[in-house]
Write a structure and sequence with these properties.
Layout: H1 26-29, H2 43-62, H3 76-87, H4 97-107, H5 122-136, H6 142-155, H7 159-162, H8 184-197, H9 214-222, E1 257-259, E2 265-267, H10 271-283, H11 291-302, H12 317-330, E3 336-337, E4 343-344, H13 346-357, H14 376-391
Antiparallel strand pairs: 1-2, 3-4
Length: 394
Amino acid sequence: MTSRFKSNRWQSGWPLAVALWACGFTAVAQNAPKPSTPPPGNISLRHEVRHAVEKGCAWLETMQNTNGSWSSADHPALTALVLISLIGPSPGTSLSPAIDKGYAYMLTCVQPDGGIYIKELQSYNTSVVLSALALRNRPQDRTAIQNARRFLIGLQVGDAQLGATNSPFSGGIGYGGAEKLPDLSNTVLALEALYNSRPLARDSGGRNAPDLNWKAALRFVQNCQNLPGSNSQPWASDDPQNKGGFIYAPERSMAGQTNLPSGRVAYRSYGTMTYAGLLSYIYADLKPDDPRVTSALDWLRGNYSVDENPALGQQGLYYYFELMAKALTFAGVDTLETKDGHKANWREDLALKILNLQHADGSWVNDNGRWWEKDPILDSAYTVTTLEIIESKL
């Protein structure tokens, strides 16, 4: 596989956030400014990363099930994550039979309601599969893409569904099915899929199809941020440990709670959701100098790490790596100044960390099994995509 990742930029200053996981969505990029030639950078490390990607992709191809799926056939999202990593930054004309077989399997999971799932986690599965379909952008998939968009848009909840007025959950998206209460993780996946498939959403007459209520989604996202002023909920904390960071959902943090010197209890901000929040702001077209954006970046600078998922240790580590690479790339951040004043080249730090974690067979796996991360197929798909995102800027 040859890397074709290009870091284009919008006139507003945000990098062009295209092709969701793999960052190369051709349909959106057509009208973008031409990218400049990247600096020489660390050529040796770039070659090491390319070797790791190729080895990881080779291992993933050997792990495909006979029906075309990877890992659990009950969750087509897992197959979609692998396909995105195998395709790389930009879909080419010459793709392996494994990729064709994987796409054929995913299309067998299309449901009459437009969702792409088997029986549960409807939003999660549909979002990730939609991202994979949009990345490849085949004419024969256009109907499935449009129907999947409508399905995801229909999962956005409002006050009426929540049975409340001005609910902090209004505007978000949950797992779907019986688990409708929104959370930031499912919301950012849906926002990515809808954002990057938007150019493919026109109907046969060229008219724009229905879209998400982005203003409502933005309100939900900011209701997950520890930032009084933007988040009017009484629990939002401006203490130095948590200010600007994000949690999983209003009044719910996977990192738990902490007692403040003032006697108040704060919901702890943590790494994965803070990068998810930053990405959500990018997809919602917030400006780089918006206080919600700058506060999120301040928290990430103060909690910079490639050794752990801040506030969660090894839990969700490989998902954290991918969100980190994606969010910082899209936000145009090349260095992060840490608490001690060190200007960290996060791409080099992350690449070296990941290279040291690769197994001899080409795979990666987390010893901590939370969020399915004892599955080497899931972890390897996350990691190959992470390396592909950062490779050309090393």
